[in-house]
What we know:
Strand content: 15-25%
Shape: elongated
Strand order of the largest sheet: 1-2-3-4
Radius of gyration: 21 Å
Number of strands: 8
Structural class: alpha+beta
Mean pLDDT: 85
Order of helices and strands: HEEEEEEEEHHHH
Helix content: 25-40%
Amino acid sequence: xxxxxxxxxxxxxxxxxxxxxxxxxxxxxxxxxxxxxxxxxxxxxxxxxxxxxxxxxxxxxxxxxxxxxxxxxxxxxxxxxxxxxxxxxxxxxxxxxxxxxxxxxxxxxxxxxxxxxxxxxxxxxxxxxxxxxxxxxxxxxxxxxxxxxxxxxxxxxxxxxxxxxxxxxxxxx
Length: 173
């Protein structure tokens, strides 16, 4: 198992490292930290979101930040009002929705084999149930979208696909 999942064993099961949309990195090896390509870093991230080449959020010490990923400029603010005014002035407020993160946001499919193996007592019955539903939907219902098994299989596949796509595109809109 360790040979097959060297990345898991190398940094630990709870540790993660992700590339931001601006090609910088956030990891939690010593607490969530943003590492910029120019060598600067911002430690103690509590929660954040990505918007227009910026990482925007709150630090653990109740300060707020805006990091421009292209110019590598780090702005920190003592109060929420200063932070909100800066965001409003620079048009950094998402219009449709804000996707907040506080941990690894990338797709769970990266380590799907590992987690299926580690939770086989749950995953095997769920996989068998899904296969049985697929069999019923295809064999008995001829994959008719108005039939219950087909609707359930379609919903499961849709939810997995949406989850995958949200992991690939973490930006706020």
